[in-house]
Amino acid sequence: IKEIKPAFDVKQQLVVEAKEENLITYAKFQLEVRDAPLKKVIVVYPDVYNISEVKGQLVNQRDYVISKHPELKGFKQIEIPLLKPVIGSFSFDLEMEIGKEPIKAVNKMGALYIEGANSERGSIVFISSEGVFIDKPVVTELREVHTGSLAVKINDAKYAFRFRKNNWSFELKVSTKATG
User: Fold this and answer.
1) How confident is the model at residue 1 (pLDDT cuts 50, 70, 90)?
2) Which of 3, 80, 102, 116 could tie 64 with a disulfide, CB 3.0–4.6 Å?
3) How far, in Å, CA of 37 to CA of 87, rounded?
4) What is the pairing mode between strands 143-145 and 138-140?
5) Measured on CA atoms in the order 52, 92, 165, 122, is the torsion positive or negative?
6) pLDDT tens, position by position, 128-150
7) Torsion sign over Cα 96, 110, 21, 143
8) 95 within 8 A of 53, measured Cβ to Cβ
9) Burial class of residue 53, CB neighbours in 10 A (0-12, 13-18, 19+)
10) In the Cβ-directed half-sphere of 47, how many Cα atoms lie within 13 Å?
C-alpha cells in the first residue's frame, strides 16, 4: 500500500516595502491541506533575503532550519515544523529583508514558494516608506492589477501584481525623493 501524501494549495500575499536602509518582504501564506496531514512546510526563497521573523499559530516559530536549496542556485530554503500535523486550512507569515540599502542598486528577485504545493497563486504589492521613490517594477510572469482590486487593502500601495505560478521575478529601482 502506497503512503498517502498531503496535497495542498497555497495562496500568497506579498508586500515588498522599500525603505532607505532596507528592502523588506512581508509574506503571508495560506494553505489548504487535504488527503493526509501536513507535518512541515519548506519555503524556497531567493538567497538575497534573510529571514527576520516566522509567525503563525500552527508553525514552530523558533525551531526551524535554514539551508541552501539543494538544487536551485541562488535560493535558500527554510524548513518549518508544524506544532501538530494539520489537515484543513492554516496560515503563517514570514518577514524577510535584504539587510542593505536598496537605493541605487538593482534589486532583482525571483519567486518564493512552498515546496510540494499543487498550485500556488497570489499577489505582490510594492510600497515605499516616506522619502523613498520606487519606479514601476520590471516584471516577468506577473500580471499588473489595480491596487484597489486586492482582497486585502494595502495602504499606500504603489503597484500591484498577481501570479498563478511560482516562476515570477521582478527588478525594482529605488531612489530618494528630492526635498525642497
Assistant:
1) low
2) 80
3) 5
4) unpaired
5) negative
6) 998 899 989 999 999 999 998 88
7) negative
8) yes
9) exposed
10) 11
- Determine whether 178 is exposed, middle or buried from the number of CB atoms within 10 Å of its CB (0-12, 13-18, 19+): exposed
Number of other CB atoms surrounding residue 42 within 10 Å: 16
- Centre a 10 Å sphere on the Cβ of residue 81 and count the other Cβ atoms it contains: 13
- Distance in angstroms (rounded) separating the CA atoms of residues 110 and 168: 6
- Other Cβ atoms within 10 Å of 8 Cβ, number: 23
Which residues make beta-bridge pairs with 81? 40
Residue 162 CB burial class (10 angstroms; 0-12, 13-18, ≥19) = middle
Return the closest-CA partner of residue 75 out of 169, 180, 173, 176.
169
pLDDT in tens, 97-118: 998 888 877 788 889 999 999 9
Q: Would you tell me how many other CB atoms lie within 10 Å of the CB of residue 24?
A: 19
Give the C-alpha distances (Å, rounded to integers) separating 132 from 113, 119, 173: 28, 35, 11
Q: Is 20 left (phi over 0), alpha (psi -120 to 50) or beta?
A: alpha
Terminal alpha carbon distance of the chain: 72
Contact in structure between 79 and 114 (CB atoms under 8 Å): no
Q: 29 near 8, Cβ under 8 Å? A: no
